[in-house]
Amino acid sequence: MSEYIKKNQQTIDRWIEEGWQWGEPLSHELFLKAKQGDYSIFLTPTISVPKSWLGSLKGKKVLGLASGGGQQGPILTALGADVTIIDFSEKQISSEKQVAQREKYNIEAIQGDISERLPFEDETFDLVFHPVSNVYIEKVQPIWEEVVRILKPNGELLAGLDNGINYIVDFNEEKIVNNLPFNPLKNPQHMQQVESEQSGIQFSHTIEEQIGGQLKAGLTLLDIYQDTNGTGRLHELNIPSYWATRAVKNG
């Protein structure tokens, strides 16, 4: 595990201790509702994934890629999937196990680095569910290559993707202060910013990396939507900062 990944691991764990939104496990009540088909599941901050993107998950093998925290995993399980979660945060993995124990279901929850080769055999999963998270990874193409390797033929990837806008503005989202790409490992000014904000080591990625990379790896884009941050000035101005994509592995 590289040093910047370790830094991000520590940052996420600290955020969870501080009450981070994406580290709050699903409640018992929402789990029961999901078992009845009444659920919302998110790749991006505010817009729930269309139910048509998921289809029937009964008996399907699903990987939550960088999807720890006890939020998506329980819903996917409630919908009948055989779920595996991999995440680099120890606290996010702990939440997965706690919800599984509370609701009395089995889940494989692995603490691991998604920037490295994933610990799964070829053609293992029917679906990979990947919420916004590759902002913490410098190079995303290896992720798409691994997704294609572990997906079964005609398996699907649902992914939440940052479009870079968050990285050009100041903390109050009022002024454009940065050039792109945003890469603290290569730009001292960017490193100074993330250190002052205690936001870990984050990276912007281009549309060529985020969507073109999926196509290059062997996926076909099926659908897409955009979303905002959910809070802050960019959100108030309805400026989209994320995309969500649905893609299928070419059979």
Give helix % range.
25-40%
Gross morphology: globular
Radius of gyration: 17 Å
Count the E strands: 7
Largest sheet: 7 strands, mixed
What is the number of helical segments per DSSP (H or I, 4+ residues)? 9
Give the neighbour order of strands across the main sheet. Answer: 3-2-1-4-5-7-6
Distance between the termini: 33 Å
* Secondary-structure element series: HHHEHEHEEHEHHEHE
Percent range for β-strand residues: 15-25%
Assign the structural class, choosing from mainly alpha, mainly beta, alpha/beta, alpha+beta, or little secondary structure.
alpha/beta
Query: Whole-number average pLDDT?
Result: 97
- Spans where pLDDT lies below 50 across 5 or more residues: none
Could you characterize the architecture of this molecule?
With 251 residues, this protein is of the alpha/beta class. Helix content is 33%, strand content 20%. It is built from nine helices and seven strands, in the order H-H-H-E-H-E-H-E-E-H-E-H-H-E-H-E. The protein has a seven-stranded mixed β-sheet, with helices on both faces. Strand 1 (61-65), helix 4 and strand 2 (82-87) form a beta-alpha-beta unit. Helix 6 (141-150) runs parallel beside helix 8 (207-217). The longest helix is centred in the N-terminal third of the chain and has 15 residues, at 3-17. The chain starts with a helix and ends with a strand. The model has no long low-confidence stretch (mean pLDDT 97).
